[in-house]
Amino acid sequence: MTRYTDDTTIDDVESGDQLSMRCECGNEVQLAWRLLPKAQQLTRLSDLRQKMVCRKCGARRPTLIIVGFSGMSSQLREKWRWPPAPRT
Predict the structure, then answer these.
(1) Which of 69, 70, 82, 84 is most deeply buried (CB count within 10 A of its CB)?
(2) What is the pLDDT of residues 26-46, one digit of tens each?
């Protein structure tokens, strides 16, 4: 299983894993990140997030989430989130 770190870029997302944005309003979209310019693909997601805008409500800085399959499971699991979820 890939360990994504705080300096993860779009280009680091492994084949089979999915990158999505989730806004506080509940809107969630998967990014067609291969369509972005190479410079953006190599920018840290935590930095790129500041420029992202929700098309539904106009809010900035959505939560970025990478999900994928782990092991032999057929269920998608969250592998990475920015900003990190608060620990309870």
Answers:
(1) 82
(2) 999 998 887 889 998 899 998
